[in-house]
Amino acid sequence: MLAIAASDLHKSYRRGATVTPVLRGADFHVQVGEAVFLIGPSGSGKSTLLSILGCLLTPDSGTLEILGRAVETLSAREATELRLRSIGFVFQRFQLIEGLSALDNVCIPLKLAGWPAGKARRRAAELLERVGLADHLRARPGRMSAGQCQRVAIARALALEPQLILADEPTASLDAHSGQEIMTLFRALMRDHQVTAVVVTHDPRIFSFADRICEVVEGRVRAAEAVA
Amino acid sequence: MVEFAVKTLLADRGKMFTALVGVVFSVVLVNIQGGLFFGLIQKASMLVDHGRADIWVGHKKIHNVDFPRDIPRRWVHRIRTIPGVAHAEPYVVGVTQMTLPSGGFEPVFVVGVDERTLMGNAWNLSQGRPEDVRRTDGIIVDELEDDKLDRPRVGDLRELNGVRARVVAKSHGVMGFLVNPYVFTTYARAVAYTGKSPDRCSYFLVRLEEGVDPHAVCQAIRSRIPEVEAYTRDEYSRISVNYWMTRTGLGISFGAATLLGLAVGMIVVAQTLYALVLDRLAEFATLKAIGAKERQIVTIVISHALVMALAGSMIGLGLVVLAQRWFSSPRAPIAISAELALGSSLLVTAICIVSALLPYSRIRKVDPVSVMH
Known about the structure:
The structure holds 2 protein chains of 2 kinds.
Chain A: E1 2-15, E2 18-31, E3 35-39, H1 46-53, E4 61-66, E5 69-70, H2 76-86, E6 87-90, H3 102-112, H4 117-130, H5 146-158, E7 164-168, H6 176-193, E8 196-200, E9 212-217, E10 220-223
Parallel strand pairs in A: 3-8, 3-9, 6-7, 7-8
Antiparallel strand pairs in A: 1-2, 1-4, 4-5, 9-10
Helix pairs in contact in A: 3-4, 3-5, 4-5, 5-6
Chain B: H1 2-11, H2 13-42, H3 46-49, E1 55-59, E2 71-72, H4 76-80, E3 85-99, E4 105-113, E5 125-127, E6 138-142, E7 157-160, E8 163-171, E9 182-186, H5 187-194, E10 200-201, E11 203-208, H6 214-224, E12 228-232, H7 233-248, H8 250-279, H9 281-289, H10 294-327, H11 338-364
Parallel strand pairs in B: 4-9, 6-8
Antiparallel strand pairs in B: 1-11, 1-12, 2-10, 3-4, 3-7, 3-11, 5-8, 7-8
């Protein structure tokens, strides 16, 4: 069963009269429960593809089904709802809200989904405990290490138990040790929550955590020939 | 989302403090300006407000309690026969000069009250009693006008229009809208002090029987004596105030100063909210990316504005109470009503919300995909 079915995706960026094609007929399919890593040189279209998969960008043409839903038929409101309830995001720079504690950061998607405050806080506390931050519920991002911040970001991504996690360079801001720890945790949580994941990365040290690695080259996706 | 908004606001205390200063500044300025305005303008109707008369009867064209035109005193008998009138008395308001022991002189408003009822007499006496005005040559002056009247003590003599007058009591804070002090005395002496004919008076002060409709009696008075106008206390108070409001541009000048202060305060708020948002565009992009709806983003921005408005109003009103306690005086009263306090808070809240629309327009343009870059 497919979690992602993307066929013949095209996407170009326009700046004035200049049109730069980024995706040129990309086909990409991911099975439910699979962890697929996207690699490729800078500018190859990895982040654009990830943004399209996360309903943050609309392809110029092609078809895309996320979790059985045809994305091109979704209204902006439905796409927002899909992002909130079914897709979890892990960003390269964590994208935590500086003014909020770890607990409050994890509460954000729960609050956006309308959870009552008490229930949301209990759920957030459970998740933070699960990612090893039980002692840091009240800590603000500025007071935590990069590894801890990424743990908070992962807890936030999992808050509403999404079926799909999209991670953009999740270890890029971490040292090697923290990167390994985060990916170990990430895979464990994927298994526990039965989540599908697409991870964009340049970090060959974490390739071993992938079920499958795809390479984006010149706007197309192909199976990577060599995995470190 | 409100909790989220409050927490993010509290996290940036520097900006919150700056915005609060803007709101507090606006609230204080509106209330103090408004309070001074109302305090000053209320002095224009002081005699009416404290006169204890239910109805004021005067010349057909009266428009200000301090500037009456005299009418025949004998008409009072016609008013006394109107059903519902408990009693009606002549009342004199006129201008004369007080000669001072130093050789100087001071123009004063002489107010002559009925010797029997003392209706319209001085109030809030700090020395002596109201009925002392009945004593020979008795006048009541205000202690805050001491400097103008060569610091008279109770028992001291003065001259009004060449006629002897003795200070028998002193009030505190009975100061009119104009610079001329009030001098309260009996009707008969007021006539002498002002050089008016004893057959004429400025007003008839009317007290009504219990439960009588004052408007109906006013109408009956107008019908009985077409040459006069009759107003209820509230009506004539308002007319006296409007006289100064409309003829002096006082309302416009106070209003303009208040609006200017309001604008400055709100520019500070708008600028701070805008800066707050600019600093957090990436956070708003994150919220959008993870599924925040437009309504929820609006809630956050409006909540920022409301928190500022609420906190600023509370602090501002607290400062206003202190300022009123410390600086309000009979000479420059700061009259802050509940309506003014509530109105200013609502106004500031509304402007805060409008101020929040500017940063919101910036947030609307934030593309959630920017979090991927």
